Amino acid sequence: MQLCEQYRPHCWGEVIGQSKALRSIDLLRRRGLTGRAIWISGKSGTGKTTTARLLAEEVCGGPECWLWGDAQEIDAKGLTLADLVGTKDTLGLLAEINHLGIGPNHCRVVIINEADCLLESVLKALRTLLERPIAPIPPHVLWIFTTTREGEAELPDSDFRQLIGRCSKVPLNTQGLARMFAERAREIATIEGLNGKPLPAYVNLLNDCKGSLREALQRIEGGEMLGP
Length: 228
Known about the structure:
228 residues; alpha/beta; Rossmann fold; 2 domains; 5-stranded parallel beta sheet; elongated
């Protein structure tokens, strides 16, 4: 298993550098995380997938949600309109998630990564879903979209902006993470016997990786911090 997966946070308390985003999620939690769509944005390697997966596990009732099939993670690049709405011979995702989950909370979560790559037909169908005035999303369902695009101005066209306008937004912090991530990277490197350099070298590594802890761990895994 890659270091970035082995040491991915397993609970909210392990998430680094995203206190503002966690406060936003806490506010949403008070009103209920289901029956809504959440748009998570941030640079690569800052925790979008981790945040989405932790939300899924919380909503569905545990990490087993992936085994139960109550949580699904989909790459937008491979999602077609037929996958979403189905055909005369197949059941689409929108029909599948209408059924209650089998876990303790009976909820369902769909995570769509790289949402800025959605096909136009899929985007329009999702936008229509969120525009419905009466029960647009079943009360047991949570949609989560993740993207490296940091704001509506960076999205390709008005359809995307209309979609994000109907989501609860959770932008991840992308500033000032280098030292926090460097400390965590050095801690992991030490545990794994891959540390041979001082903390400033790790800060430089994170800066070189443009703040991506995932990329930094991949380079550490390759022996980059073993020393001269």
